[in-house]
Amino acid sequence: MSRLFGPIRQNGYVVRDIEAAMSFWTEVHGVGPWFYVDRVQTDHFLYRGEASPVEMSIALANSGDLQLELIQQRNDAPSMYRDFIDAGHEGLQHVAYWTTEFDSLYQRALGSGLTLGHEGQIGGPKGRFAYFSQQGHPGSVIEISDISGSKGDLFAHIRDTARGWDGTDPVRRVG
C-alpha cells in the first residue's frame, strides 16, 4: 500500500500486439476474461498540456483484486505510451491508483513532486485519468483514475466476472 496514494489497483502494460498479449496472459497465466475495446473513445486527451489525437486499444482483466490493463497505441500521436514504445520498451508501463476523490489525489501527486505527463477523460467528468512521470525506471509511471462514475461499476463487473471465470469466452468485445 502506498502511503501517498493507497493500494495499487492496476498494472498497465503497453504492448505492440494486444491480441498476442491477451492470448499470452490467458494461455500462460490463466488470466481472463479480457474485456476488449478496439478503439477507445476519449472525451479529450492531453499530452504535456497539449491536445493529442491518440488512438488506442485496451483490454482489461483481473487477477484477484488486481486489474491488468493492456494498451496498444494505434497511431503516432504524442503520449506517454508512444514515449515508452519509442524508448524500446514493452511491458509494465504504469501502476494505477483508483479514487472517488480525484481532485484531491491529483493535487497530492503534483505536491509530491511528480510531473503530469498525460491526462484525459472517458465517459464524462467522472471518468478522468492522469499519468505522472518521474525519473524512475521503466514501468514506474503513476496513474490516478476516477472511479466515482460508470468506470467504477465497469471495473467491479470485470473483477466479479474474473472470480467465477471457467476459461471460456476469453475475449469479450466492448463497444
What report would you give on this structure?
Helix content is 25%, strand content 35%. It has helices at 18-29, 80-86, 102-111, 150-163; strands spanning 10-14, 34-37, 44-47, 50-51, 56-63, 66-73, 91-99, 115-121, 128-133, 141-146, 171-173. It has an eleven-stranded mixed beta sheet, sandwiched between helices. It is globular.
Write the layout of secondary structure elements.
Blueprint: E1 10-14, H1 18-29, E2 34-37, E3 44-47, E4 50-51, E5 56-63, E6 66-73, H2 80-86, E7 91-99, H3 102-111, E8 115-121, E9 128-133, E10 141-146, H4 150-163, E11 171-173
End-to-end separation: 33 Å
Shape: globular
Radius of gyration: 15 Å
Strand order of the largest sheet: 4-3-8-9-10-7-1-6-5-2-11
Percent range for β-strand residues: 35-45%
Share of helical residues? 10-25%
What number is the mean pLDDT? 95
Labels describing this entry:
eleven-stranded mixed β-sheet; 11 strands; alpha+beta
What's a quick, concise take on this entry?
With 175 residues, the chain is of the alpha+beta class.
